[in-house]
Structure of Cyclic nucleotide-binding domain-containing protein:
Amino acid sequence: MTPTTVHATATSLSWIPSEAVTGMSRKAFDLGFTHYDEPPPDTIDDLDELRAHDRFRYANVLACWAAVEDGRVVRAGYDDDAGVMMGSTTIHIGKLGTTFTAVAFPVIRRDPELLEDGSARLVQTCGGRTGLPAPRPVPHPPFVKMQAPWVWTTLALTVRPDGSSEVELTGASRFPRHWVYDAAGMLVLKSGLTDFSSWYAHSFGSRTPWGDEDSPALVTAAESAGERAMSRLLMSGAQRPRIATLAAGDLLTRQGTPGDELYLLLDGVLAVDVDGDRLAEIGPGAILGERAVLEGGLRTSTLTAVTPARVAVAAADAIDHERLAELAATHRREDRAATPAATVGGTTAGGTAGSAPTGVAAGGAGSASHQPTGRTPAEVEST
């Protein structure tokens, strides 16, 4: 019997979200010398076009094939177009602009692993650094670095005999934000926490996959499309929200107390508790506090920071209440049965603010599955 060949793709995009840079380096962003990035789209159609419009800094494209015989994958490998796609960094001084091309590092790939259930698992690490110099003291030899810190993601893709696939973000640099897309190009996972100061000090040399260690990724599932639309309105409106920072364990809201502010979780993970029961743990992009704004001013849940977190806080008069009501109709976490809390080192778990569950794997890997739709796996493009 001639084996059937199926193909699958997973992609991560790395980008710098608003307000993510801290310390002295932030001044370059605040003064307009360089820029934060607009969030990438919910669906990837053309990576080359996104790169041409400076929509991401780095992309890890894990494209693979698998030969299927008698209902099992018997061989697998990486497609020729798998690898890293580099963006660029542009700085502006007055009306002048200079673009620095990023430097790609060698792609790290594990040998394909044939699993007992008949599927195959492939793992790829891609990354690099910006060409823009970043002189700074560091706490390890050589104690002064001129080159920028290193950025990377490690993706794992499990391909099944029926052509379906599951992507995991098993490791990533602590900065910037990493979004992961499935074989259909849909956003399914994202890194839950950015840590600029730690990344700036430590991400080079031996403390990277090109040395002797990777960094486990804290992963959350993608929030709903409605939340992404609302977050863009909040962050680009005439009345910009203030930014609040939370340490792990800090309360953002307490159930039953008054409140008329809306929250957008920019970074980190928050736990949602109602009547002492943990309903969910949610990650960046979640809109919170909408029921108190719309229904009389009492908080319906307690929100606690699981990790350090940054939250955009919007006043009630800065919110489109009609759009917010549409979004609130899809939430109603407190009216549903409790959703399992996040797991450590597991796959997707918990529930999102909105529709699909939000998974958090603290110190582990998040995963998301893709089932073939009208297109065959061979018709799913890698870019």
In short: The chain has two domains: 4-217+365-379, 225-355. The two ends are 32 Å apart (CA to CA).
